[in-house]
Amino acid sequence: xxxxxxxxxxxxxxxxxxxxxxxxxxxxxxxxxxxxxxxxxxxxxxxxxxxxxxxxxxxxxxxxxxx
Length: 67
What we know:
This protein is mainly beta. It has one helix at residues 40-48; strands spanning 11-14, 19-25, 30-34, 52-53, 57-62. It is 13% helix and 36% strand.
């Protein structure tokens, strides 16, 4: 089975176990994550706009399909 390569707008699981959306792909190996806003911690991480490297992504759980 081939491993899905993360892309912009996918939902992924990080190696930390967190589920995040990939809002924007900055380059081949970095994404701006959307952690959500359900808790103050999630909102703070999302608003910090700290890129996550592709190496921190465990797996893709949802693939955005463009029209």
